[in-house]
Amino acid sequence: MSSIFIVLFGLVGFCFGWFVYSKFIAEKIYQLDPNYQTPAHKFEDGVDYVPTNKFVLWGSHFTAVAGAAPIVGPAIAVYWGWLPALLWVTFGSIFFAGVHDFGALWASNRHDAKSIGALSESIVGIRVRSVLMIIIFLLLVLVNAMFATIIADEMIIYPESVFPAWAAIPVAVAVGVLIRRKFNLLAISVVGVSILYFTIYIGGLMPLALPGDIFGLGGHGNWIILLYIYAGIASMLPVWLLLQPRDYINGAQLVLGLFVLYTAVLLTMPDVAAPMINDVAEGTPPIFPILFVTIACGALSGFHGIVSSGTSAKQLNNEKDARFVGYLGALGEGSLALITIVAVTGSLYAATAAGGWHEIYPTITGGPSAGGFISGGALLISEGWGISLTFAQTMLAVMVVLFAGTTMDAGLRLTRYIIQEWGNIYNIEPLKSNYISTFVAVGACLLLAFGVSNGNYPGDGGTLIWPVFGATNQILASMTLIVISVYLIKLGRPAKYLIAPLCFILVMASWAGVWYVMDYIERGQWILVIIQVAVMVSSVFIVLEAWSTIQKLRSEDSAGGGDESVAS
Predict the structure, then answer these.
(1) Which residues, in sequence order, are CB contacts of 445 under 8 Å at separation 6+?
(2) Residue 158 and residue 370: Cα distance in Å, rounded?
(3) How do the domains of the chain map onto residue ranges?
(4) How far is 548 from 26, CA to CA, in rounded Å?
(5) Per-residue pLDDT tens for 22-63?
(6) Architecture (CATH level 2) of domain 4-556
(7) Residue 373 in contact with residue 66, Cβ under 8 Å?
(8) 86-109 tens-digit pLDDT
(9) 414 touches 140 (CB < 8 A)
(10) How far apart are CA 233 and CA 7, in angstroms?
């Protein structure tokens, strides 16, 4: 079967999601108000609260939530077969991720841009706030540790990506300054993306590697330390100077990259080499429920709710922009996951191995993950566009590194926000400081990265984290949907469009959490056992608290519907 059918199925579904379903959710459920004063205007400070053009904010939001996860997750999940991955990416993006990301952005906008953890206090209760913020903090530390490892791996495997990845920083600063001075956005975008692609060409001519004795931790460990130093500094800079333009220009580069990949599929029409449903090896984790936590970003991700309510809500210029930024951002990530499925299952990629696809993917842990996307996508681009294979590989490796890097930027900033919110809630003066809260955030991430080891190199804890990240991430997504659902019930609006997906993902994520706890116990990974059990126990508490709140609302019998005054 030709890969074009996979592409058509996904893109037609996404068009339905954008033109039909998201419009219904925006008008009938969230009821966006263009006259509502957004926190970006209410608290504008030029650092965190910055009213932003919706296209710039979409690029910033999209790349912050994307990272490498919509590549890594589908690249692993296709081992069960391309059909389950395709169905979850398509329907998950439309009915799960879209309403989740959009809803978190809207709800936060109506609560002074508070994080989903902080705003849960006014919606559900103070005890839920305390517990949910712990889950969010743990997830952010997991995300940062995991993506630092992914970036370090790709920079070691593809040294051609080092120069363009770091050159993107001064390009982003220049873009931020020009946008701030109200230069033409289209011209800035064209020039910025052109420079990025020129640096990719230079990177292919000038591969770079770190000396192993900088911190005495080898190539991987050195990169991880440097990445955290950079992310810590970046997290304290004004969003308009680095975070926002870096994410925006990376988003523009990704849109161009997706265009090149999708048109390459049209030009090559590769067959699908992978089976529709794979006959998996003995010992493979069960597809139910593990598929639904393996593909998180690209179908549904709790991390998106943190970004929506943590940084994007502080930059929303008009409430009507929430649909464009939140829902379309989820579909953009779904598009990346969709092309990843094609790249790692196409016959062009499988032809590189004598035994075909089954030799490349012998087991669920033996597959190439992000490397599969880079290798398969590069072959598609090279065959379809006539571009050199080396340049195509460098382009996709840079794409992976840049997206993981933008997620680290946002992740460290969000971790700082959580720590500062704790400082404000409990009146702990040192934690209110940008510098101290950033230092604590970086320290927690380094502790996990270097405190858990897979035995390969110092700092490789991130290679073990994907499973616990997946289950924790989806549990958080269900908790976010609970908070938004209770808020809708308070407003007297239908919540079934969120309750249905939250029930499904809560069951799958909890089931997966139990499975992974048993696996971690067998392997003696006690730190991961503690994190997973803590998250699961916390989620049970939040569900019970939310149910109690709903019961109280019903007993009050507010037949006249909700009162918008509770929103702010």
Answers:
(1) 141, 144, 145, 148, 228, 412, 415
(2) 12
(3) 4-556
(4) 28
(5) 999 999 999 999 999 999 999 999 878 999 999 989 988 888
(6) Up-down Bundle (1.20)
(7) no
(8) 999 999 999 999 999 999 999 999
(9) yes
(10) 40
